[in-house]
User: Fold this.
Amino acid sequence: MEVNKKPKFEVNNLNLFYGDFQALKNINMNISSNEITAFIGPSGCGKSTFLKTINRMNDLVPGVRIDGSIKLDGLDIYSDIDVIKLRQRVGMVFQQPNPFPMSIYDNVAYGPRIHGIKKKSVLDEIVEKSLRQAAIWDEVKDRLKRNAIGVSGGQQQRICIARALAVQPEVILMDEPTSALDPISTQKIEDLAVELKKDYTIIMVTHNMQQASRISDKTAFFLSGEVIEFGETGQIFSNPRDKKTENYITGRFG
Amino acid sequence: MPARQGYLDELEKLKNDVIKMGSVLEESINNVVTALKKVDGKLAEDIIASDDKIDDYERKIEKACIALIAKQQPVASDLRRVTSIMRIIADVERIADHCADISEYIIKLSNEEEIVMPKYVIEMVYAMKQMVVDTIESFVNEDHDQAERVIAADDIVDDYFEKIMDELCIAMKHNPDKIRQYSEYLMIVKYLERMADHATNIAEWIEFIITGELEIGKQ
Assistant:
């Protein structure tokens, strides 16, 4: 399919168990860089589990067992890359905006500071650049010292995206990033995701099928821990190959 | 209750309306056959008057499609069905228009000195009618093979057109005083030929609904 483009992630025969329960079954998938990949599927289908596996957020879940491999630029994320380094390269934005209870500036500067950057001029630059990239700079530039909790939900989410961008990741994972937002904020996040894919690889879990069809390049449909179908978004939403995909996206179950 | 019952009902109703529109068209074509055979000007007038029914169906179904897209955002085969129906009803409406166009010429013929109908006209109209009937049936059953047969049948209708045109040219040469009636038959068979083309278009949209592959106008 994509002969010239090396995948950002190569997932091979990935299985994940929570105790006796198998949450992911033999996942095989290549995820391309500079694209938006959407994961869709009913609740409990494994899509969020898989997303979390990509930056090893399942590591601390008791009883979790993972086999198979996930490679980031050819390196196994469970054996070849340090988890802190992995999470610096693979950022995450959650469903509920979760700014830290501190100023907007400190939220965005938090990651770079942890990574040892102390010089104010450098931090200033990172904060401005990240907020600009997250399309929120103009709205907050005059109140960077205000508490991030005090702004609207849509603004909080973009601040969280800026915070993720500040550590210069290569990949951004988004777990239903707009499900708690109003339509206008949702539109802004969607536009932002499309803008960001020029520089980043974006993987997004969404329950909003129109959102997946509007902005993603590829879509994977999950059901009962399996990837039923993975392909070009246009194809998935106009002519899915699998009847189960068809039934789900047309709302006949789920 | 299955998910999205109201939506599924709306889709089903849309399909049923198209089928009803198709049966009005079939009736109209049957009347054309009868009016042609008898050169019945009165029946031809009725055919023209009944064209409004088809137009009403077209408006109604078109509106329902737009409302369904706006409110329910159909995707996958549902989307193909809704968008194809919008194209299909336009072709059905064109075929019905041609029933009226042919009727105009039947009225003219009924007021003129009678001539022998060219050979093959009735065979041609039956071949065309069968295409329309098969098209509607393949829509009802989403039957790909039947749609394929409709598309293949278009060549048969085209051959009839060529044959009849040759015959009419010769007849015009031999009976120049009947050129008007002959050219009226020529118009009629041209409309029949166009009706078959529209049936072919519909069959191609039905194939698109089934396969998701756009073959429209490929041949």
User: Anything to note?
Assistant: The two ends of chain B are 44 Å apart (CA to CA). The interface with chain A takes residues 2-4, 7-8, 73-80, 212-213 of chain B (CB under 8 Å). Chain B has one domain: 5-211. Helices of chain B lie at 5-38, 41-72, 76-110, 121-141, 144-174, 179-211.
